Amino acid sequence: MIGPRLEGNGGVSLGPMTLADRKQMTRAMQEPETSRFWGGRYGDYRDEAAEERYKKDAEDPNSVNWTIAYQGETVGMTGLFDIDWAARDCESGIFIGRSDLYGRGIASEAVRLRTEFAWRELRLHRVHNWISLRNRGSRRANEKAGYRQMGLMRHYGFRSGQWYDDWLGEVFPPDSPAGIFVPPSKGG
Amino acid sequence: MFGGTVRGKLTTLRLPVDADLALHQRWAADMRVRRAGPIGRWHEPAATATWKERWTEQAKDKSSLLWSIAAGDATVGYARIGFEGAPHAEVIGLEQFVIDPAHARNGYGWDAALALHRWIFDFMHFRMAATDAIAADDAGRQRILERLGHVRFGHGHEVYYRDGAYVDQYLYQLERETWDERWPNEREYPPLPEELER
User: Fold this and answer.
1) Cβ(A44)–Cβ(A27) under 8 Å?
2) Is residue A153 a contact partner of residue A166, using CB atoms and an 8 Å limit?
3) First-to-final CA distance of chain B
4) Pairing mode of beta strands B151-162, B128-135
5) Long-range contacts of A157-161 (CB under 8 A, 24+ apart)
6) Would the pLDDT of B197 be above 90?
7) What integer is the mean pLDDT of A152-166?
């Protein structure tokens, strides 16, 4: 599925992902500045492949895909994936394709909007994700939306002479008996 | 893809054959097998013709491997792994590992798991084996993984839903260094004498 428009704070919004956005993010993923914690910087980066992936994502009833906009400009993408409708669980992910905009709280607001959508519109029970432990920005963005550590995988990956561990997070709705505190919404 | 022969003491991981399709159909429909969650569910039940298509897809899929597990003349289960990060995978994901309930408590699960890990670490030299698909009340698979040397690195809360209630999820990993320390004699082949290496 393609996600609906969600207005956030600080000039951040989530909107329906377009094919042009997908192609733009595919180009951004090839850059060293954005891919330290993201994949191996190899793959099928052709426009035709992006088109195929876009079509697949749009038709997938078990995922929701958004573009992240900052002051009206496309800067990233985020989504909820592999939704298990019986367990009401899914995985989440986010990519900010503009390294010059890191540190402005864009990811934090995008994760907050995405997480609220999971509870309010999809009635999910749990959302989980895997983030490189060293990717402090992404981890903090998720923690601010209520994600809490549920695991730490040793030696998940290797970059530039160092092993990276992976942080596993999970978040539950505010009224969940799982008992994990989720900060109240600040609007949006 | 399908896996070739890996021999244990009691079991053999071997190439799946068409005669195994009916067993997959039965396992997929067996609530005792499905109870395990994703480690026990490769597909939902379907018509035999559909299983044949799944078989073809599996044969073409270069990011995973399927074995049947045999004990004597009987097919007693199956194992399916994923190459994480294929085509340059260093890590094996344990996707499904099933022993037919009719053949439970014969030591087949342990024997096949040991043979599978020997293939992963000794024969193929992968860096890690891991799984994120173990239900917290699945004591049998946990016992096997822990005996192999897997460590639990995660605990997901209320992840699987069955019998009207949520069940937690455990995640396990085993690195090659640990395998080498723990199972130094588990080798596919004995070492060659020096003179034969030239």
Assistant:
1) no
2) yes
3) 33
4) unpaired
5) A157/A132, A159/A36
6) no
7) 92
Q: How far is CA B75 from the centre of its chain?
A: 15
Amino acid at B128: M
- CB contact at 8 A, A171 and A143: no
Look at residue A184 in the predicted model and tell me its pLDDT.
Answer: 44
Query: Letter for the amino acid at A127?
Result: V
* CB < 8 Å from B in window 61-120 of A: 86-89
In our burial notation (b when 16+ CB lie closer than 10 A, e otherwise), range B37-52 reads: bbbbbbeeeeeeeebe
Mean pLDDT score, A94-107: 96
**Which residues in chain A are closer than 8 Å to B84, comparing Cβ atoms?**
none
Place of tokens 């082949």: B189
Six token digits for residue B80: 């399916």
Q: Taking a C-beta distance cutoff of 8 angstroms, is the pair B68, B15 a contact? A: yes
Going by the DSSP 8-state scheme, the letter that residue B106 receives in this structure is S
Confidence class for position B85, pLDDT limits 50, 70, 90: confident
Q: Which residues contact B39 (CB under 8 A, 6 or more apart)?
A: B94, B95, B96, B97, B98, B131, B133, B134, B135, B138, B141
Backbone angles phi, psi at B99, to 5 degrees: -115, 130
**Tokens, residue B41:** 């569910």
Q: Retrieve residue B110's tokens.
A: 């342990």
Instruction: Tell me the pTM.
Output: 0.91
Cα angle B158, B164, B168; round to 5: 20
B159 contact residues in A (CB cutoff 8 A): 87, 89, 126, 128
What tokens does B174 get? 């085993």
* Rounded distance between C-alpha atoms, residue B120 and residue B81, angstroms: 10
Q: Which of A153, A164, A171 to mutate to test the interface with B (most CBs of B within 10 A)?
A: A153
State the maximum Cα–Cα separation within chain B, in Å, rounded to a whole number.
64
CB B150 within 8 A of CB B121: no
- Average pLDDT value over all residues in chain A: 92
